[in-house]
Amino acid sequence: MEPVSTREPLSVPPGGSSYAVGVAIDALYASDIFRIGRWRCVVGAEESTAVQTQRWPMMSFTHSGAFVVHAAGRSSIIDPSCTLLINPGAPYRMSRHIGERSRGAYVLVRPDVFRDVSGSGTFAPRGFSEIEGPSSTRSYLLQRALLDRIEGEAVPDALEIDEMGMALLDAALSPAAPDDDEITVRRRRQHATIQRVRALILEHLAEPMKLDVIARAADVSPFHLCRVFRRITGRTLHRYRTILRLRMAVDRLREGSTDIAQISLDLGFSSHSHFTAAFRKEFGVSPSKMRKGKLREIDRSWVTESGDDLEAASRAGGRLRRGFLPER
Q: Which of the following CATH numbers is that of domain 181-308: 3.40.47.10, 3.40.50.2300, 3.30.420.40, 1.10.10.60?
């Protein structure tokens, strides 16, 4: 299904909903600085959404499912392990929906504020240089906490929400890599291989996988696959799969799933105890607390240093570095 129209679905007022072809939008919050809400895909697995544009720079966080985004002449898989980055006025569309029907959250930021926050980072005067950015544990939980705070109050405190939004921007935006034509060309050549590998892992997320099988499917050696995957994504294959499983578990818990043992089995963990240990290590809380409690009760710890940013902070003299390090 080819896109049939161009829409700007994220400009509706808070509390309102709108539909572009293939995407449903629930606008939750608007201030002079931010527009924040939820989105969900409503097209079939092999269908494409309409072409869309936004007036402000947009970061989109996927909570469940995965898809391919087409923008700026490039295509990339977007899943819960990364952030979708869209420049103002840049047409984009979504296709090839993988696994569960995709849903997530968006954050639009006034352009001058975005430039000030990112400095010389990912958002240069010409806009984002990539359509896919990293998503640390800290930035992922911050955006979940931000939604929880907005939806938990009849009238959210604008100062608090905007301040949390600034913390999210600081955590999510990474410094731009130095321009190097040779590196850029080489990475673009490797991009297609990594996309095939990510799609394979997503399609078999709950199943055991062997390195040799993945490498053969990607038509590369196991050594080359491990080296290139970590170089491009900042993560090992095992870490990437674990992050996907755990973030999809968060979405199920926040959506009301009560059987933690079943969630662990559905997502490929060997046991309830294995899942609980991995979850606590990643997010600092147990699955039951994430399910029963409100993120507002734990989000303060994520506005400061925590999780996979602690090592970077200690090396930077205690100040959080905007960017991402290879994760364990």
A: 1.10.10.60
d(CA 266, CA 269): 8
Q: Is 240 helix (H, G, I), strand (E, B) or coil?
A: helix
- Give pLDDT, residue 144: 94
CA angle 264, 268, 269 (to 5 degrees): 55
Please give the pLDDT value at position 304: 44
Task: Count Cβ atoms within 10 A of the Cβ of residue 308 and give its class: 0-12 exposed, 13-18 middle, 19 or more buried.
Answer: middle
CATH number given to 11-172: 2.60.120.10
pLDDT mean by block of 10 residues, the chain; 328 residues: 35 49 90 94 86 92 95 91 92 89 94 74 59 90 93 89 89 59 63 92 93 92 90 91 95 84 93 94 90 58 43 32 32
Helix (H/G/I), strand (E/B), else coil: 224 = helix
Distance CA 90, CA 53 (A): 6
Calculate the alpha carbon distances from 279 to 3, 141, 285 in Å. Answer: 39, 13, 7
Q: 11-172 and 181-308: same fold?
A: no
Residues of 142-159 as b/e, b for ≥16 C-beta within 10 angstroms? bbbbbbbbbeeeeebeee
**Are the CB atoms for 104 and 58 separated by under 8 Å?**
no
For 207, which DSSP code?
A: S
Q: What is the largest CA-CA distance in the chain?
A: 55
Q: What token pair was written down for 321? A: 């570095």
**Angle of helix 237-254 versus helix 137-151 axis, rounded to 10:** 10
* CA nearest to 36, candidates 48, 28, 44: 28
Which neighbouring-strand residues pair with 78? 67
Distance CA 12, CA 1 (A): 26
What are the domain boundaries of the chain? 11-172, 181-308
Number of H helices, E strands in the chain: 12, 12
